[in-house]
Amino acid sequence: MEKAAGSPSVGGSYPQKNAEILSSQYGINLFLAGLLLTFAWAVHAVGISKSHLLSYLITLMLIQLLWMLWYLGRSCTQRRLIRDKDTHAGARWLKCGITLFAVITLILDSFKIGYYIDFSNCLSPTEGIFPVTHAVHTILQVYFLWCHAKDIIQSFKTLERFGVIHSVFTNLLLWTNGVLTESKHQLNEHKERLITLGFGNITIVLDDHAPQCNCTTTTLCSIFSQGIYYLYPFNIEYHILASTMLYVLWKNIGRKVEHHQQHKTPFKFHGITVGMIFGLVVLTSTIAIVVVYLIQIGRSKIKSELALTMFYLHAIFVLALMCTAGIVALLIYRLEDRSLDNSKNPARKLDAELLVGTAAGSWLLSWGSILAIICAQAHPKYTWYNLPYSVLVIIEKYIQNLFIIESIHREQEKVNDDIKTLRIVTISRGSSLSLTPSYKEIYNGRAAPESGEVPCLLKGSGCGRENDHGAKEETSQDKSSVMHSASDISFYSRNSVTNNKRRILKNIAAFLFLCNLSLWIPPAFGCRPEYDNGLEEIVFGFEPWIIVVNLAMPFSIFYRMHSAASLFEVNCKT
User: Are residues 541 and 407 in the same domain?
Assistant: First the structure.
């Protein structure tokens, strides 16, 4: 009988579980087919051209556009229905971030359209159709994420699973295409300047996909071709952010949530001045280092070595500061006794997994550099700075991941209902004067009495005469009131210590936020010592090391941006 009673609920879960498995397998196969097509184009496989890859991507984007239009249309017809929302998904600051990246992506698409017009005589029509389709796809997708990123879909669940997972892997393929195109450009620049470091034994063969015809307007072609590669880092971040938000939407399909009020945590600059100042100093100095590095690298062997030395010394200093800040934050957490929130939360789980998963890219590069330094027979002076730099990269990410993951899992501090009113009791004609608001009123920012009553002290001596009939009763309570006031003052002191800890944590989060933005800039805009160092290429071989760098670098770049986003959330929550 028990089995029969339980069978309906168990049987009802099978179709949805099967739909989840089938949709995930569909998405993976969709991605693998596109990945192989991208790889075939990259290695100049026979019979595979760029037009084939772009046609595949255009088809995927058109299918996603049709699904989003269907979903938006169905949502408009059901506007009056009350829908469940995941309050943790699609935070406003995340939507603002993806909107900023989308705007720059639209500028990139306009540059591609201009580039196609100038080289239209020898380019495939798909290279003109792709940026137009991508621009429409970007606009509609951002609108969709703004309106429906928090949705918990409870109808047409099987169909919606396929639609959402199709969108996830479409964005991942667009991200892969952007990463590959940007990496090929960086590799060509690296090959051109590698000879200046004295590594003449490495064969320089440029992987050129340039059009085989003349540009109609030389100046515009130069602006478009160069500007495109400076905008690619923002396009790459846009697609990876979109895929993560869509993945959370996919995980939320059919999910049952508890209805409770979500505490809003707006970002405030108050109390984080120190962290912001130090972080802005790091950001400004990093931009200056990147500019000097890009100017000096490849000019001559001496200038290239000086640029690498300058980069390593600056990075070592910044990483050491970040390690120190992270250790201080973890020590403060150890001194506090606060429980962790272990409730089911797809967005928070994905954040933690992405932090550890993408950090592996940097760890792979760092361990490669450490092994190269140990195994190399000759060591130019500048390569020795690479050793502490690589070690600190590993340690810093380890500490920072612990800090962020613990921060997003910590329960927010609540006001205890047993907290009593803090009073300064004064014996005056047998009455007690309440001069200060309660702690709850201070905490909630309601220091003024809501009832409009004037404190007894402001009423003058008449207040005491009005209460003469209760003087005896109040006098008998004076002793207990004074003792209770001492207890309240002790609690208020402890609360002051807690506020100081929170202020330190907020400053650390703000500092690490700006530091991660600073460390995102160098690799995103071509400042990559893993390419220019040259030592790893001698130990591992040119082609193997370049493959490792091209695979690991996108994850390393994404880690910094994702860490910055997570630290922004930590600052709001602390």
Answer: yes
Residue tagged 């272990």 (tokens): 342
Instruction: Map residue 428 onto helix, strand or coil.
Output: strand
Show the beta-strand stretches assigned E in 165-233.
none
Residue type, 352: A
Distance CA 425, CA 485 (A): 7
pLDDT over 60 at 324, yes or no: yes
Burial 35-46 (b: 16+ CB within 10 A, else e): bebbebbbeeee
Clarify whether residues 370 and 336 are in a common domain: yes
| Residue 207 sits in the same domain as residue 298 | no
**495, pLDDT greater than 80:** no
pLDDT for residue 468 is more than 60:
no
Does residue 251 sit in the same domain as residue 380? no
Question: What sections of 336-431 are H helices per DSSP?
Answer: 346-375, 386-409
* pLDDT given at position 92: 76
**Per-residue model confidence (pLDDT) at position 169:** 95
Q: Which residues pair with 410 in a beta bridge?
A: 340
Print the domain residue range for 382: 269-412+494-573
Residue 566's nearest CA partner among 504, 523, 509 is 509
Residue 448: predicted pLDDT: 43
Strand segments, DSSP code E, in 408-563 are none
Cα–Cα dist 384/316, whole Å: 12
CA distance 140 to 487: 59
What values do phi and psi take at 304, rounded to 5?
-65, -40
Number of domains, the chain: 2
Q: In the structure encoding, which two tokens stand for residue 174, read together?
A: 């667009």
pLDDT of residue 407: 85
Half-sphere exposure of 231 (CA within 13 A, CB side): 19
| 474 within domain boundaries | no
Nearest-CA neighbor of 174 among 84, 93, 225, 238?
238
Angle at 68 between CA 65 and CA 70, to 5 degrees: 110
| Residue 72 placed within a domain | yes
Note whether 186 and 40 are same-domain residues. Answer: yes
Cβ(517)–Cβ(560) below 8 Å: yes
No. of helices (H) and no. of strands (E), the chain: 16, 0
pLDDT at site 460: 45
- The answer to whether residues 234 and 278 belong to one domain is no
User: Is residue 484 assigned to a domain?
Assistant: no
**426 vs 276, more confident:** 276
Q: What is the C-alpha to C-alpha distance for residues 420 and 403, in angstroms, rounded to an integer? A: 34
- Tell me 257's DSSP state: -
136, 236 Cβ separation under 8 angstroms: no
**223 and 276, same domain (yes or no):** no
**Residue 289 near residue 178, CB atoms below 8 Å:** no
Of 231, 256, 281, at which residue does a domain stop?
A: 256
- Point out the domain boundary residue: 198, 222, 256: 256
Distance CA 99, CA 83 (A): 25
Would 434 be classed as within a structural domain? no
Are residues 181 and 297 both part of a single domain?
no
State how far the Cα of 20 lies from the Cα of 26, in Å rounded to an integer: 10
N- to C-terminal Cα separation, the chain: 51
